[in-house]
Amino acid sequence: MVCEVRTTSNGETPGDGGMSAAAREEAAVAEAPADPIDALDSSSAGGLVIRGSVFRGASYAAGVSLSVLSAALMIRHLGVTDWGRYVTVSSLIAVATGLSEAGTSNVGIREYATLDGGVRNRLLRNLLGIRLVLTLFGVAAATVFAAAAGYPAVVVLGTLLAGVGLVLAVAQQVASIPLIGTLRFGWVSLLDFVRQAAVVAGVVALVAAGAGLLPFFAVPIPVGVLVLALTIALLRKVAPVVPLFERAEWRRILKLTVVYAVASAVGTIYVSVTVIVTSLVGTAQETGYYGASFRIFTVVGLIPLLLVGAAFPVLARAARDDRDRLHYALGRVWEMALILGVWIGLMLAAAAPFAIRVVAGKGFEPAVPVLRIQAGAIVGGFLAVSLAYVLLSVHRHAALLVANSIALGGSLLLTFLLVPSYGAKGAAVATVVGEFGLAAAYLVGVVRAGLRVPWRGLPAIALGVAALSAIGVLTGLDGLPLALVAAVLYPAVLLALRAVPPEVFDALGWRSFGPRPR
Fold first, then answer.
1. Is 381 exposed, middle or buried (0-12, 13-18, 19+ CB in 10 A)?
2. For the segment 322-344, what is each residue's pLDDT rounded down to a tens digit?
3. pTM, to two decimals
4. pLDDT in tens, 410-458
5. Shortest CA distance to 175 belongs to which of 220, 119, 133, 128?
6. Domain hosting residue 200, numbered range
7. Considering the domain boundaries, does residue 199 fall inside one?
8. Domain check: are 157 and 86 in the same one?
9. Are the C-beta atoms of residues 226 and 202 closer than 8 Å to each other?
10. Which of 131, 265, 340, 393 is deepest in the core (most CB within 10 A)?
11. In this structure, are 463 and 341 located in the same domain?
12. What residues contact 219, with CB distance under 8 A and at least 6 apart?
């Protein structure tokens, strides 16, 4: 039987309330579910970014605390030899991770934020295919290397087990791109925390059971399955988490990432190169002092990537559609990067004695001034990251590569020149100069792209730094007490001078505390 639909002379269908075909189409569009990527174009995007930064920062802080707990348990349980083997496997997997990432994550977020509908999902699925293939090759290479290097069987098998966990983690990382691209940072933060908590739970269970070394390498496997399953459940109506292997699309994606991949590799190397050079031209003792400071610096140095990175999808969307909005977003991101960078740098410098004592223990007191010097690099790091995401948003990959190469060369040269005479302090100075040099090079690239950054908050920031310095000198406070004063006094000065962007207060529901919008 054929069901016939009759229409009237004016295109109306009986029983639809006299609605025309055009009206029905408009109603269907209105009733269709909104594209989640539209959040990037909404007036609430800024608030989502600010709250997302808070969520990610809190999640990271909780994760670091859990990581310290699990590491302390494992070190005491495994002993020096097995702990060394565990770190060896972790390093091999870290290399495999870096090679398989190849700059694709940030490019994937940018493209996801600027593409539409089916094209966007196709990109995501092919990106997942690329990452899985590259990761499998990386894991295979790491396992073969472990065997060829003559490592014990537990290390070789442990590399393979940890590699399986890495494959699951990579799948989850790519699958979570839609969450980041649609500013759902609450879920991203929760998933990160669930991963860290599940790892700690696994470590605690193995320690309580008196397990040997090998089972610890397998902990990421069930954790990866859990977090990936949760991610897929969140995305079942947003994006399919199934890899594609389309050769033409792979070529297009890899063409997008090749220059940025090299820039990312250079950027990763330059931060760590000071440790290697210090070990070559300095004494073992100075290398140890610098290593203790560097371990703390790298943990704190990830904060700008999390906080500023929350704005990346909005920056990418604005770069595609609205130059004025890009200027506005850049200005606010830059202002907050400067404010937060100085704030965290001050607290780290003040808390240096406490931090070194907790992380390294007695005998590492000479590392305190080293960490205080490196605290300055946190400011440069915040500024560099804020500008790097802008350059990536406007597809200035070559500018990123040139800037990172300059930073690498400068760090190498300064470390070689300063360490023989000034030891670990010289290496710390090289790090600070490298970070600010990188920020300056990025700033040149941003200006050449026709963009600009505001400097109006500098007087208030300078006054906040001066006030804290005066209190430290006059009262003799140091260590954790001075850090607590810094945590309160510096933002109090900025609030009194109305130097904090009003959008921050609006996003957090603190409108009565903020200034009127400028």
1. buried
2. 888 888 888 888 888 898 899 99
3. 0.72
4. 888 888 898 888 888 898 898 899 889 889 999 999 999 888 888 888 8
5. 128
6. 47-245
7. yes
8. yes
9. no
10. 393
11. yes
12. 165, 199, 202, 203, 206
